[in-house]
Amino acid sequence: MALARAFLKDSLHGVEDVNEQVTSLPVPSSALRRGALHEASQDAGPRGVPLRADTGLRGHTTSIIAGREALEHPATEAWARLRGSGTPPNEIECLKETTPSLVYRLRKAAPSGGDVIAKQGRSETLRAELAIYQKVLVHLPVSTPHCYGLVEDGDGICWLFLEDAGEVVYSPEDKDHRRLAARWLARLHTSAAEFAAAAALPDRGVAHYLEHLHCGRERMLLGRANPALRPEDLAVLDELIAQCTVIESRWEEVKRLCRGMPQTLVHGDFVPKNIRLRLGQDGLILLAFDWETAGWGVPAVDLAQLSPALYWRFVREDWPHLGIRTVTRLAKAGKLLGRLAAVDWAAHWLKYQWVERPMGWLAVYRDDLAVAVELLAEGK
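The structure assignment produced for this chain is given below.
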């Protein structure tokens, strides 16, 4: 019961007084802390989970490429193919180098003189993200980075080029940031629910996360054979595998938790590492990126890190049938679904030699899912 109470307390963390006056969003003193796009991904695991001090997954180093090497870099060449005779970057900052994705910042390469983000990955994944930017987001009243386009690179690989969202880091501890995020998500969800093209996006309903459960469990079962795993690591995996089996046995209860809210565009990974803030004429503007996991469904997972009461305040005019209890229930369900997706992602790395970092993530997810299993058993 103590674990269950802790989970419930966490799910309501940061709930605002629904009668509090919503102000314009001036720039608070804490809002303009600068940090590179890669900062959150280096200091935290997927979905903002802090890492153990001894973890160190290969490929997460930062480097600066300059001079002739920058001019001849594959990202520069792909950018030139897309834009023609534009300005090449004066430097390239490596933000992410993991199989199969690469992310670089091309400094001063944008037509405006700003920076450009170059993402290399599988064509299927990045083409889906391109479609969301160019066919859905441009028609919705939400702020997003400009998408310059996509360049094929052969062998099922391509480059996607985006406006750099900047370096003002979103902080869930900041009251103004939380208010801005709740309003932005409310506007996204209510407007996209009425946009027919969004309904053709990949399914991100409850069944999608059941597939994550199956895939993650299978990866952990196979990953147990990795000789780099310690006995305590195997114990964590065995607990997670058992938790997945229990959650699957109560999947009808999970589906019940996700009822009562319209289907809409789901970002799928709305966490600090995928959010930046920009200073506009009237205050801060929120920019969300990394739409690779986006799709169509009940947006429970998007609500997992928000104040349910504050989000409800912004959506109730468009969705008057939606009550605060439903939103709170959806937010709790979103925590569970998000953790299942995160387990699947982390378990992918168990096939490699360097397991310390993914096992650090999985140990955190094990503790989170233990609470979720207890709540499901109690019918919460």
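Interim note for the steering committee: Residues 78 and 84 are 10 Å apart (CA to CA). The domain at 2-36+170-378 is CATH 3.90.1200.10 (Aminoglycoside 3'-phosphotransferase; Chain: A, domain 2).
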